[in-house]
Design a protein that fits this description.
Layout: E1 16-20, H1 31-41, E2 45-49, H2 58-62, H3 69-86, E3 89-93, H4 101-118, E4 122-127, H5 133-141, E5 145-147, H6 156-161, E6 162-167, H7 172-178, E7 184-187, H8 194-202, H9 207-217, E8 231-235, E9 240-244, H10 253-259, E10 269-272, E11 275-278, E12 283-286, E13 292-295, E14 298-301, E15 305-324, H11 327-330, H12 333-347, E16 358-364, E17 383-391, H13 394-410, E18 431-447, H14 452-455, E19 459-464, H15 479-486, E20 503-504, H16 505-508, E21 511-516, E22 521-527, H17 531-540, H18 545-552, E23 559-565, E24 570-576, E25 602-603, E26 612-613, E27 616-617, H19 618-627, H20 632-642, E28 653-654, H21 669-692, E29 699-700, H22 703-709, E30 717-718, E31 732-735, E32 740-743, H23 748-757, H24 766-773, H25 778-788, E33 793-795, H26 799-803, H27 806-810, E34 816-822, E35 845-849, H28 854-864, E36 868-873, H29 881-887, E37 891-895, H30 901-912, E38 916-919, H31 933-939, E39 944-949, H32 964-970, H33 973-981, H34 994-1017, E40 1020-1026, H35 1027-1036, E41 1062-1067, E42 1070-1075, E43 1080-1081
Parallel strand pairs: 1-2, 2-3, 3-7, 4-7, 28-29, 35-36, 35-38, 36-37, 38-39, 39-40
Antiparallel strand pairs: 1-8, 4-19, 5-18, 6-15, 8-9, 9-13, 10-11, 11-14, 12-13, 15-17, 15-18, 16-17, 20-25, 21-22, 22-24, 23-24, 26-27, 29-43, 30-42, 31-32, 32-33, 34-40, 41-42
């Protein structure tokens, strides 16, 4: 098949293509994608890497190939078919995995077998990479061998004791072999990009471009989105293009730039034989929807060195494994195992005296994966102990392991109760022979003399004769198959929704991973898909050496790299491995599970500049611009993602009618109603799936029903009569000397307070109050009422005026704040929440201390999904019967006086055994009675504390009183609503208590989200929602233009409500017809079993 060496010489100035089928020969690939690449791109070469040290030193030590023979045959057959029939050159690097001379010969035998069975004749070049030991020792004496990474200096004795030694050749041996025009080159151990770079350089491509391409292509389609296998590189003198062969995949500038992070000490300097690839000026351009063009890298020549790899035999290993469930022993496991070690040393004096005879414990459930790097404390209910014994002989290893295991089984320990045995052994025989053990004893760089980069790697040519004619026909895709691949649909690119509030890195990054960078280094990558998120993390300066030292118990000298890599929107850190890869004491051979501590690093809230555009603060205008096209589903997805819940569950929600008007308002109340109710229902369904081990059931929330439920407290009938107005006779909007204020008078103490402030007697009428307020400035009334008079009265503001206030700037852009208070609580759902339930939250204990409306609504909602809710009210505080009738559905009611020691003790007992404590009192009120979060987690370390407030937990107004109507007044909502209505009003309230209702549902959603997070992460959690925060979120959804939002019907009485949205039940106050819950969950019951009753009707005990 061979042709003269000068054939197609003119191609050196033209484009040509290289195909790589996968990242590792033997790992498999899609043969249809392969043949599509062959037919469409007609590659000049098929090049594939076959080497890696990932598995550890055993391959070189035992002469074992990375994959089974059958896997190599499967992968090679299509490649050799293309080589023979399409006259495409094939280059394979690091044959067999370690690239030893033995494996080059084995790979040649496999290729020969396939060729002869198919009738193919090939000219094959082999390149050996075994190194002469005397040469190495002479260079050691000359001081021309140095460590490659954090390893000790190389000694001649280590060279002599090595089982085998190879060197990573560069491109030059492949270039030399190509001069003899072989069909196939089988290379020994080489620098992974070397065969790719060699083929390209031999055709006139600049080394800068060739090496950069090789660094990417040697990993196949890993740089594609989604990660793939087969890839085409289109080569030019000064650039190359990357195109995945799967129709679903694409290469983007971000995905390609990010690939240079993979398994590298640092991504911008990539050292290899004879030079360093510098990526400072590399450019990545999207030229088609699938293809990325790369240029600009610089290959900087350095004195020629190659990397030596050699392994030494340490001994033989025996392992045993068993479990421990006894909490008494688990609590003292470290001391117990150390006593076993000391006892074993007395029996075997050579134990732990050298690396050839050692005992190691891996305690899974405590630090089995990370060992000395682990910093997280845990309180596991069970552990597994893997014992590892290495000794000079297999017999000695087994003997010591048997004795150690028996000692663990029978040793006594303090307070022991189980005297029959300590160790649950799953295997019989209990000890398992794990074979020979090796270590990397050579991982060093050796200086080469001129021309040794070729001469040290012998090239041999051989001819394989397959007969007169091939027995295998030319493989081809059918036209239908080709067109299907040619016109396949790309996987859409998604952007991660991230919270603007303080968040864990796992909520912000798209990739957080760990991997080996050679046998002696561990490297970490964190990547982002949005520049603003990347900048936010970078500017927060949380990924410092101090952070790494605290998370991984390392020192400054152990941190080799800590840097940001702007082209990939990524951060990179590399540390020294605490143990040699794949040798004695290994805990994570590939290094893939060391990233976990990075997930929970807290990144501060995003900083947003406070500038004004058209009278609107950018704090709000940014939010508006990002959400003003949102429908109800977008709201659910936005908040769901920010809460850190599984995105896959979003497939289960249906929100019919979410594009229609729902209530007459310029605000998108229907969107908020359907979205917030759907959010908590989906969260409940997700819990149902968790506790029953099933898929998340379908959730349906119709728009009209959700909007009606946002007015539920106004639309019920009790014995045929509508509820009385909750408003008092003197409150509402009052004109001042410079504007307006709104006074809240639903509670008598607030009504009496504003009268006292205005020097009026209790019982004065509205006109009397209006006459006094008229002489005041609005802000003076507000200040005196809220800070001095303990009333609830606020000035009417515009958006511009509100946006200028410090409290406006203190509000989060996200309406729910979820935070772990302490990691000490147990993981998992409460034991009462067993499977087989009909209600999603059955078994959940909720203790509610609240007034009106938002907090009682959260408890009511949790009860609708099955929670056991005890509503605690005070006999000393006034109630609002008109509202309590609706919001009392689903709850048992208890009255306790926290001033009474006996009642307070009963309340503490309820808190001690509850799952959720939800309260809606003014921030700081309950703290004065010993109910701060810090005190609560002392008595219940698993508790979820949920708080509803008017203005949020931070800012100068954090401890102020407030209600829905007052937040609408002081924040600009009432003014904007009036302006949109266009009827000349100074202020216009929304047609429902939208902030109360949305706040209640969001608080319930936050509680269920905290329950899920607690199940996964353990600990105690806090949930914060505020009326002002909900206002900000509603405002970010935008407003309907002009008066268009008012062009729909309202629901002002029970008879306006569609009959199917109502239910009639007997209550403690008579027959009640009220709005049923608008969410339905397939296969689950939703609704209230307990009906309203007089306050204090129940005993303070859980069901």
């Amino acid at each position: 098949m061979s042709t003269p060496a000068n054939r197609d010489a003119e191609q050196t100035t033209l484009e040509f293509n290289i195909l790589t089928p996968n990242a590792m020969l033997g790992y498999g690939y899609n043969s249809d994608h392969f043949w599509y690449g062959i037919e469409k791109y007609q590659p000049a070469a098929i090049i594939v890497d076959s080497g890696s040290t990932d598995g550890g030193p055993y391959k070189l030590g035992m002469g074992k190939m990375t994959c089974g023979r059958g896997s190599y045959i499967r992968d090679l057959e299509p490649i050799l078919d293309a080589c023979f029939h399409r006259k495409i050159k094939v280059l394979i690097g690091s044959a067999g995995g370690d690239g030893s001379n033995k494996h080059v010969a084995e790979m040649l035998a496999i290729v020969t077998e396939i060729a002869q069975s198919r009738g193919y004749s090939f000219k094959i070049a082999t390149i050996e990479a075994g190194m002469n030991r005397d040469l190495i020792k002479s260079r050691i004496i000359d001081g021309r061998v140095g460590p490659c990474g954090p390893v000790e200096a190389l000694l001649p004795e280590a060279v002599d004791s090595a089982v085998d030694i190879v060197a990573q050749m560069g491109a030059e041996p492949f270039i030399k072999a190509l001069e003899q025009d072989p069909d196939i080159i089988l290379g020994g151990r080489c620098y992974d990009p070397a065969p790719f770079a060699a083929f390209s350089i031999s055709r006139g491509v600049l080394p800068d471009v060739a090496w950069h391409m090789g660094k990417i292509m040697e990993c196949g389609g890993i740089c594609a989105l989604p990660k793939g296998r087969s890839m085409i590189a289109t080569m030019r003198i000064d650039s190359f293009d990357l195109t995945p062969l799967s129709p679903a995949e694409r290469c983007t500038p971000l995905s390609v730039a990010a690939h240079t992070l993979y398994e590298k000490t640092r991504p911008d300097r990539l050292p290899g034989p004879g030079g360093v690839l510098n990526l400072d000026e590399a450019k990545y351009e999207q030229i088609t929807s699938k293809t990325c063009r790369v240029s600009g890298a610089k290959f900087i020549r350095t004195p020629y060195q190659v990397k030596l790899e050699g392994v030494s035999h340490l001994g033989y290993r025996t392992i045993f494994i068993g479990g421990i469930r006894d909490p008494i022993l688990i609590s003292q496991i470290d001391e117990f195992l150390e006593r076993v070690r000391q006892y074993s040393r007395n029996l075997f004096p050579q134990l732990d005296q050298s690396e050839e005879c050692r005992l190691l414990y891996h305690v899974y459930g405590k630090n089995g994966v990370m060992g000395p790097l682990e910093t997280a404390a845990s309180n596991p209910h069970e552990i597994a102990v893997l014992g590892e014994v290495v000794a000079p002989t297999s017999e000695m290893s087994h003997t010591i392991a048997n004795n150690v295991r028996a000692s663990i089984l029978h040793f006594a320990y303090p307070e022991q109760m189980a005297t029959t045995g300590n160790f649950a052994s799953p295997l019989s025989p209990h000890e398992q022979d794990a074979g020979a053990v090796f270590k990397f004893s050579l991982y060093h760089l050796i200086d080469l003399e001129k021309d040794e980069e070729v001469s040290l790697f012998p090239i041999k040519m051989c001819l394989v004769e397959g007969g007169e004619s091939p027995t295998t026909p030319i493989p081809r895709l059918s036209e239908e198959q080709f067109q299907e691949l040619e016109n396949g649909e790309l996987t859409p690119i998604t952007v991660k929704m991230v919270p603007s509030v303080a968040a864990n890195l796992s909520q912000l990054a798209t990739i957080i991973r760990s991997k080996n960078s050679g046998p002696f280094e561990m490297t970490f990558d964190i990547m982002f898909d949005q520049p603003d998120v990347y900048r936010r993390v970078k500017e927060a300066n949380v990924l410092t050496n101090e952070t790494i030292k605290s998370l991984y118990r390392v020192k400054d000298e152990d941190i080799l790299t800590n840097m940001y890599f702007d082209p990939a929107l990524a951060w990179k850190c590399t540390i020294k491995r605490p143990w040699a890869q794949g040798s004695v004491g290994e805990r994570d051979t590939l290094g893939t599970q060391q990233h976990a501590p990075l997930l929970d690093i807290i990144v501060p809230a995003a900083e947003i500049p406070n500038t004004y555009v058209n009278g609107t603060s950018s704090v709000n205008s940014i939010a508006t611009s990002s959400r003003d096209t949102f429908g109800a589903r977008d709201v659910v997805e936005d908040i769901w993602s920010h809460l850190g819940l599984p995105v896959k569950s979003l497939n289960s929600i249906e929100l019919p009618g979410d594009d229609a008007l729902a209530l007459p308002s310029s605000y998108k109340i229907g969107v908020l109603a359907q979205g917030s109710i759907g959010l908590v229902a989906l969260a409940a369904a997700h819990v149902h799936a968790l506790r029953n081990g099933i898929a998340v059931p379908r959730v349906v929330v119709p728009l009209q029903h959700a909007a009606v439920e946002f007015k539920s407290e106004r639309l019920y009938l009790l014995d045929g009569k509508p509820p009385p107005s909750p408003w008092g006779p003197i409150g509402g909007l009052h004109k001042t000397s410079d504007g307006y204020v709104r006074a809240h008078d639903s509670f008598p103490n607030h009504a009496d307070g504003i009268l006292k402030l205005m020097d009026l007697p209790v019982g004065a009428n509205r006109a009397d109050l209006a006459g006094r307020i008229a002489d005041w400035a609005s802000i003076d009334v507000e200040t005196a009422a809220t800070l001095e008079g303990k009333c609830a009265t606020y000035a009417l503001r515009t958006y511009r005026q509100w946006d200028a206030l410090p409290q406006s700037k203190a509000l989060s852009n996200f309406p729910i704040t979820l935070k772990q208070l302490s990691p000490k609580g147990l993981k998992g759902l409460p034991e009462r929440m067993l499977s087989g339930n009909k209600k999603c939250l059955a078994g959940l204990r909720v203790l509610e201390m609240s007034r009106v409306i938002a907090t009682p609504l959260s408890g009511k909602t949790l009860a609708a999904h099955g929670a056991d809710v005890i509503w605690v009210t005070s006999p000393n505080l006034p109630d609002l019967p008109a509202l309590d009738r609706d919001f009392g559905r689903g709850k048992r009611t208890v009255q306790l006086d926290i001033h009474n020691p006996s009642d307070k003790m009963q309340l503490l007992e309820l808190i001690k055994s509850c799952d959720v404590f939800v309260q809606g009192y003014r921030p700081g009120s309950l703290e004065n009675y010993g109910f701060s979060a810090q005190e609560l987690i002392k008595i219940n370390p698993n508790i979820i504390i949920a708080n509803m407030s008017a203005f949020g937990p931070t800012g100068p107004w954090a401890r102020r009183r407030g209600f829905d109507s007052l937040v609408q007044t002081c924040s600009g909502m009432n003014v904007s609503e009036a302006e949109h209505a266009g009827r000349g009003e100074a202020a216009r309230p929304t047609p429902c208590q939208a902030l109360d209702h949305a706040g209640g549902y969001m608080l319930a959603a936050g509680i269920v989200a905290a329950l899920c997070r607690r199940a996964a992460e353990g600990g105690s959690w806090t949930v914060d929602v505020s009326l002002a925060g909900v206002m900000k979120y509603l405002r970010s959804l935008g407003q309907y233009p002009g008066s268009t939002g008012f062009m729909c019907k309202d629901y002002e009485a029970s008879e306006d409500v569609p009959r199917e949205y109502l239910e009639t039940r007997q209550t403690g106050f008579g027959v009640m017809k009220a709005v049923r819950h608008s969410a339905k969950i397939e296969g689950c019951e939703v609704g209230w079993e307990v009906m309203p009753k007089p306050l204090g009707s129940d005993s303070p005990t859980w069901l």
